[in-house]
Design goal:
It is built from 17 helices and 14 strands. With 472 residues, it is α/β, with parallel strands linked by helices. The protein is globular and about 65 Å long. The structure holds S-adenosyl-L-homocysteine (SAH).
């Protein structure tokens, strides 16, 4: 099993090989550590001032694993306990090894270069073989909300037998600019979640490990339920305790962002999940993933998404459009537009306009986000909206989010049969949204994929549904 982490020259001009200081592993040496399941080796296939790659090679010995198992539950045992994929794929053993190899780095300590611990570095992690139960969709749903660019290569199960389909083992490349310790924490938690195999090291202290590595980012993650459940191997009580600990004090997480929903009424219903923040995170990461540089925010309201977009230098031109002058005025105030630097001001525009009237200003953008807006349109106007966006503006990527009506039964504060906001003209079930989006995509030459935002309830789905349209 192999993991590599690559970086280039660091933002402060230090050589790329300073990665060795951060990992506490000397780039000039091969180091080997004994593990309960075999051996872990750390070495650097490249170590120059411009490029440095650290490799972790796990030599998993399935025979040693079987011997090491005390008090096994008996029952017939097949050959698969000796011959299996464990030596080759990224699994919970990687996390076990990371605890020995990189504990200091994961705890954010670095004796030689302490100033680098929290500095975002341009990092690329490669895992040539990751078993993904849930496929590429799940892989993306786990890493993209954290801001990763994800490249996936699928493999035929056997090239001689194409009918057998594709293997659940994927080759994965993850790119992001973030502190090294954040990358390590994400891999530590999410690799076993993807694999979802039974491993034998789940115990009470697993909650502590999950908290230690996940507390900073997991509670904001749209898939936190799935991650926690899988990480703790479906042990109900452990999962519940962990989720309770994750959501402790959630309301004071980011008072600014939490207070900024477009409608206090809607927010009061949705706040317990800070759904608004999850929605913004999902939309921003989908826009980043699409490689968009120029973005329209249609029905921008008070500008929550605009503020998030402004923080990302990838977006060079951002335009917010709304039919309400009051909303645009609030957006201007919240953006502190007058106090932005000239350079920042030149990136952002606010226009009065409507998504149901053709408007030449909307053409020429890479992407358009339409977040919680379509449900405010009268259904007979939807056709006009479709043409304005998909026929005239025609950006490469269109992202649309809307409530999932099925989820309304889960909001305790919402009376049965009512919509979430008094200005909502309709709320769609998952099937209704998909039916509409599939037809629109087909008629206008786009491909659409659907992603959940918020906890994806087994019965009623997630509170918000998102369609990501890509022009074909
Ligand atoms: N996208 C924002 C606001 C959602 S509320 C957010 O997620 O916070 C819906 C917004 O759509 C309101 O600001 C409303 O003024 C705007 N809106 C409604 N009909 C519109 C139309 N025809 N054209 C443009 N904006 C519209």
């Amino acid at each position: 099993m192999l993991l590599t982490i690559t970086t280039t020259r660091l933002p402060d001009g230090s050589p790329a090989t300073d990665l060795g200081f951060l990992l506490h592993k000397n780039p000039a040496r091969v180091q080997t550590f004994e593990q309960s399941f075999g051996h872990a080796h750390v070495f650097y296939p490249q170590a120059t001032e411009e490029h440095c790659t650290a490799a972790v090679l796990l030599d998993v010995d399935p025979v040693a694993l079987v011997r090491g198992r005390s008090g096994s539950s008996g029952g017939p045992r097949g050959l698969d306990q000796y011959v299996n994929d464990r030596p080759y794929v990224a699994s919970s053993f990687l996390s076990v090894a990371m605890n020995t190899l990189f504990a200091t780095a994961m705890n954010g300590r670095c004796k030689e270069r302490p100033h680098l611990v929290d500095v975002p570095l341009a990092l690329t992690a490669r895992l040539p073989a990751v078993p993904c139960r849930g496929g590429e969709g799940l892989l993306r749903a786990l890493f993209e909300p954290l801001g990763y660019e994800v490249d996936v290569t699928a493999h035929a199960l056997d090239e001689n037998f194409p009918d057998w389909g594709e293997s659940r083992v994927l080759s994965v490349e993850l790119r992001h600019t973030l502190p090294l310790r954040a990358l390590l924490a994400h891999l530590y938690v999410l690799v076993p979640v993807l694999d979802n195999d039974k491993h034998y090291w789940v115990g009470e202290d697993e909650i502590d490990k999950l908290m230690a590595r996940g507390k900073d980012w997991l509670r904001e993650h749209p898939e936190r339920e799935l991650i926690t459940t899988r990480y703790l191997k479906y042990q109900g009580r452990l999962t519940r305790d962990a989720l309770a600990r994750l959501t402790e004090g959630e309301d004071d997480l980011d008072p600014d962002a939490a207070a900024a929903d477009h409608a206090a009424e809607e927010e009061a219903i949705e706040r317990p999940l800070s759904l608004n923040q999850q929605r913004l995170g999902s939309v921003v990461s989908a826009l980043k993933g699409a490689g968009a540089e120029t973005v329209l925010d249609l029905g921008c309201g008070e500008g929550n998404l605009l503020r998030a977009l402004l923080k990302e230098s990838q977006f060079t031109r951002i335009a917010g459009v709304d039919v309400s002058m009051t909303a645009l005025q609030r957006a201007r105030e919240k953006l502190k537009f007058e106090r932005l630097s000239e350079r920042q001001q030149s990136r952002i525009e606010l226009w009065h306009g409507s998504v149901i009237y053709r408007d030449d200003r909307l053409a020429g953008f890479d992407a358009a986000a339409v977040v919680e807006v379509i449900e405010h349109l009268d259904p007979p106007r939807l056709r006009a909206f479709e043409r304005v966006i998909f026929e005239f503006a025609r950006p490469r990527t269109v992202i649309i989010t809307t409530p999932n009506r099925e989820y309304n039964v889960r909001w305790e504060s919402l009376a049965a049969g009512t919509l979430r906001h008094r200005d909502h003209r309709f709320e769609w079930t998952r099937d209704e949204f998909r039916g509409w989006a599939d037809r629109v995509a087909r008629e206008h030459g786009y491909a659409v994929r659907f992603l959940p935002i918020g906890p994806d309830d087994a019965e009623v789905g997630p509170p918000t549904q998102m369609g990501v349209f890509e022009r074909e």
